[in-house]
Structures are given as structure tokens and as C-alpha cells.
Amino acid sequence: MVSESIFTQCGKYSRNEVENALASLLERFGGMKSIVSRGDNVLLKANMLSASAPDECVTTHPEVVRAAAVQTIEAGGKPFIADSPGIDRFSDVARKTGMEEVARELNIPCVELDDPIALPVAEGNVFQRVEVSRRAVEADKIINIPKLKTHAQMMLTLGVKNLFGTVVSQRKAQWHYNVGLRRETFADLHLDIARGLAPCLTILDGIRGMEGRGPSNGKPRDFGVLAVSSDPLDLDFRVCTLLGAPLEEFPLYRAAVGRGLVAKDARWDAAGLPEGTIIPPIELPKLDALHLLPPFLDRFGKRFLASRPVQEKKKCIRCGKCIEICPADAMKPTRAGDIEIDYDKCIRCYCCQEVCPADAVRFSKGLLLRTLECIRR
Ligand code: SF4
Ligand code: SF4
Known about the structure:
By secondary structure, the chain is an alpha/beta fold. It contains 14 helices and 15 strands.
């Protein structure tokens, strides 16, 4: 199969519309039978970040996962839906996101990505040992089904970032701790995982996605797009361009160019959309400027320049999820029930914002960003 990405318009999550849109896209690849072989165990790697309803746009819509499962079954494959949510219990996530219902209806498994094992190291990898779920490593094929969303740390979360979800639950937070402060390094990790897992297909749910403070607390927005690709990296750069987001500021792009995985002068169009299709630019989250600093300035930068998490007391429902996920042990409850944050320990990994169900963690701008904004004005 050639490396390519194809887009189509798809306006809503009606079963017929999604099934027909996906079928027409797959025809361009020779149909699902040319991708999945009879008897293949096929991991459908949806985005199941948290226990959220489909209309919150935090997770992949179940109709898109369902359409992928139906195509896989018709091709003779044996699909199973799976992910490793960051914090919520898998059973709650499966039920609330609608995946459990899809699995029940089609009589296929919906299981947690657990049991970490080492991912085989691909040539040119930056990281020599990364562990992901055994179910992902041992699947015959992986169909990657991301949601189109913004990401407060990585600008966008699309095909490549979705595969980071195969890292087993709390170990994600540990990676945030190890490399989260440098976006390009974190992007290198995502690239290594994507290259190691090599999904046979990526299906992007961009029908209704998220902008602003993604991946959990942004605003749902219609994009009206479904896309398939044999290469999630190729797909991500085309989507970034289609959304009017600055490619040169996309950490994944910077990492890929730095490693020579893509040519700097490549053109990233959205093949398949009618000529002249314009999607109004996506509202991106504010990224602070810490990643511009050399390593020896990181400690200083983190303390005085980087954005820092702040609890919005009025919104907080005191669920404790942020304290539980914090990989740096930087958060603790006060007697009054508020959250105290130790900024010396905090590594600005954004995990607390990512898991907060009440949009009660805000990142206040660092001094450097505020100064730059003043100069620009
Ligand atoms: S306080 Fe938030 S941003 Fe800081 S280390 Fe903990 S989870 Fe990460
Ligand atoms: S800040 Fe968010 S995650 Fe933390 S306790 Fe409050 S509501 Fe829960």
C-alpha cells in the first residue's frame, strides 16, 4: 500500500453517512480486504481518554469505531476495541464513550490495553526502551482511530499522538515526567511508538472535534472531515495544514524534520476534499515558550518563565483526580479542600489539566510569554 492520506467531507454521525464515507475512502486503498487478512486479530485503537460522552468530543465517536469494526469483520478480520485510559476505570470509560455498546452489538471484545512489554526498537529510534501494552504489540494489525483535537502541551493530538495511548495507564504520566518538559523530546517518543507499532491504517474522526483547551477541556467544534491514511505522520501534517495551524510550531513536525523523516519543503494538501474547501482556522491552545530554552536554562525557565497550573477553586469539584495522576507528586489537598501545588516539584506536564473533569486547572502564562505578548502589542 502506498503511503498516502485521503480526506472526505462527512457532516454528522449518522450511521449511514459514516459507513458510506469510510467505505468510499477505503475504496481508494483497494478496500479493507487489501489491508486486513482473514483471521487477523485487529486492534481498533480508539481515543478513550476518559469517561466522557461522545458529544463532549474528548473521545473517538463510537459510530466511527463501529464503521471501522464492520469493515474489518467484512474483510474476515477479528477486531477488538481497546485503549488505556489515563485515570478513569476502563469499565466506566467503555460504557460512557459508547464503545461497550458497539462491542456488544457487533459481538467483539472491548478491552483495556494492559500488561506492558517492550516495543521492538525500530532503526533510528531516539528511545531504546519503551513499553506499551502486549495487546498492541501482539495484534496482527492495528487500525488507529484518533479524534481531531487540540492539545495544550503538543498543540494538536491526531494520528501519531493517539498511539501514545498504548502506553499502559499510569506509565503515561511517568513519561510526561521524564520528557514532558521538552515538547520535541516528547514528540520523539510519540514518533518512536508510532514507528514501532506501524498501524496498517489510521482513520481520523474529524467530523466533530475539539479546539481551544484540548484534549479534555476545549470546545467541541464541527470540522466535517473524515480521513484515512496509511501513515499517521503524513496524515497529521496534512490535517495541521488544513486547519490553518502553523506547521513549523507543531512539535511533532519539528521533531520529524529534525530526524529527517520528512522534507522541510514538502507540500501537505488534503487530497479528496472538493477544490476550494476552506475550514476556518482552528483555535489553538496557548503554548508557552519554554521549549525554546537550552537545557541548562530549564530549571530557571521552569521556575520563572513557564506557564504554571492553577486550581480554579470555584469550578473544582474536589474529585482528587489531579492529585492522583500528578507524576511529580507536586499536588496535595489542603485542609480547606483546595489543592496546593509545589511549583519546584511541578514539571509542567499538563497531566492535571488533561484529567480534570471540571475544567478547573488553568495554566497561567509564564513571565516570558506575557512579556512577549506585551512587546507584540
Ligand atoms: S502539578 Fe500538574 S503540571 Fe505539575 S507535575 Fe503535577 S500534574 Fe504535571
Ligand atoms: S482541580 Fe479538577 S481534577 Fe483536581 S480536584 Fe479539582 S476538579 Fe478534580
